[in-house]
Design a protein that fits this description.
The chain is mainly α. Helices cover about 30% and strands about 5% of the residues. It has a single domain, classed as Dihydrofolate Reductase, subunit A, CATH 3.40.430. It has five helices and two strands; from the N terminus they run αααβααβ. Strands 1-2 form a two-stranded parallel sheet.
Length: about 120
Amino acid sequence: MRRLTETGPGLDDDALRAALAAPAAEDTGPGAWVRVVFIASADGAATLDGRAGGLGSPADQRLLSLSRHDADVVLVGAGTIRAEGYEGALLSEEDRRRRAEAGGPADPPVAVVSGSL
């Protein structure tokens, strides 16, 4: 597990993208690589007033957006989809352009997980 502790203005987006990049295949061994990004309060709550977005700072939102840059799929709970109103592009125009230039879709697909599957 890697923990990113510096997200302030001292690190530009390219440095953060590099820190968030998936490890090389020879470093991970066989199988898939999964990145988990979430926020929780000091008491372990994952929401504030029913929304995860209420817990995050601008730095948290920046990391979330950058972590989606090279994602093959973004997995989101159905409750989060309903509460946060997910719709439209998940990435900035710059990140959408970067993904397209790298040969992938501009937006990562979203997989929704519900309690009933």
